[in-house]
Amino acid sequence: MKALNIVETAYRATLEEQDDTILWLSQSFQTAGVDVSVLLRGNAVNYLIKDQKPFSLCFGIWKQTQPPELDRDLQAMIAKGISIYAVVEEIQARALPQDRLIEGVSFISQDQVAQLFEQFEYVWHW
Question: CA nearest 13: which of 71, 94, 74, 68?
Fold first, then answer.
């Protein structure tokens, strides 16, 4: 099976769960033998910024001591052979600095998204 996971909504429950659910799920799929890739679009392109420092979350005396490291999660996925794509126009719209983006990502234009879909049996949008 060849599947593309589209992540568009960023930081959904990442402080509570310590990672993005779909990035975690994508890694699990790959471990189970699925040829999975990830497309970041919308606010999820922010995950590409290196060395993010999430704010501290605490409730009363409880503190979140293991905040999400989404850039590192993506780098680990790339190292495992998971292809990561990102839409250039989304990066430009947010003025993300090129020199702070993680390496190993395939950048595509919005016009190429439909062509990317044709390479997969399944396209899941989260």
Answer: 68
